């Protein structure tokens, strides 16, 4: 049940809030009470306790509750425009990106682009990147020369859940380990 709720929350807090009639504010937040009420009207059996359990137990920490616990948002991964209020930060020298072998040639040619999301997502470790890549088929993990990217003027942010974000990764900064 919690996996279904997590997928539902990802849909409405990252991509399609209008499917249940909610509107995210500029920072991606929506009132917890409103989300629960609109989810119930849409036939989703979510209450406050279930919602908070999904947020707390999410292995990827996909969702964030406001300090007062009254609002919720997705930590990153939005395809709808939001400003998470993240401050640019220096990344580690190396980051990783997991993807599928089927798109490797295009990535090595064109670089990493956000596709339907606002930012490219990168991992601090190759194991996590490999797990991400598995969701899309036979995985491959790319090494990203993040330190060099930053030295060359490209900007990085880190989401509340530890995911590294950047606008794009030109192919010159990519390699296969």
Automatic annotation (TrEMBL):
Presence of the UniProt keyword Transferase in the record: yes
Q: Which InterPro entries match?
A: Ptrans_KptA/Tpt1, RNA_2'-PTrans_C, RNA_2'-PTrans_KptA, RNA_2'-PTrans_N
The record's annotation in Pfam families points to:
PTS_2-RNA
Family matches, as Gene3D superfamilies: 3.20.170.30, RNA 2'-phosphotransferase, Tpt1/KptA family, N-terminal domain
Q: Which UniProt keywords apply?
A: NAD, Transferase
Top-level class of the enzyme under EC nomenclature: transferase
Enzyme Commission identifier(s): 2.7.1.-
What are the recorded GO MF terms, alphabetically? transferase activity
- List the NCBIfam families hit by this protein, alphabetically: PRK00819.1-4 (NF002014)
Q: What does this protein do?
A: Removes the 2'-phosphate from RNA via an intermediate in which the phosphate is ADP-ribosylated by NAD followed by a presumed transesterification to release the RNA and generate ADP-ribose 1''-2''-cyclic phosphate (APPR>P). May function as an ADP-ribosylase.
Family that this chain belongs to = Belongs to the KptA/TPT1 family.
For this entry, the protein name equals Probable RNA 2'-phosphotransferase
> Organism source for this protein?
Shinella curvata
């Amino acid at each position: 049940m919690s996996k279904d709720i997590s997928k539902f929350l990802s849909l409405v807090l990252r991509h399609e809030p209008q499917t249940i009639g909610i509107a995210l504010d500029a920072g991606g937040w929506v009132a917890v009470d409103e989300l629960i009420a609109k989810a119930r009207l849409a036939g989703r059996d979510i209450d406050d306790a279930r919602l908070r359990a999904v947020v707390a137990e999410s292995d990827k920490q996909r969702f964030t509750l406001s300090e007062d616990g009254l609002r919720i948002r997705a930590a990153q991964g939005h395809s709808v425009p939001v400003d998470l209020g993240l401050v640019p930060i220096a990344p580690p020298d190396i980051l990783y990106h997991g993807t599928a072998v089927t798109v490797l040639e295009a990535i090595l040619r064109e670089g990493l682009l956000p596709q339907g999301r606002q930012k490219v997502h990168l991992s601090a470790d190759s194991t996590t990147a490999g797990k991400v890549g598995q969701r899309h088929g036979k995985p491959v993990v790319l090494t990203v020369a993040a330190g060099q990217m930053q030295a060359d003027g490209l900007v990085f942010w880190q989401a509340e859940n530890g995911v590294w974000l950047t606008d794009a990764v030109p192919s010159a900064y990519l390699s296969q380990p």
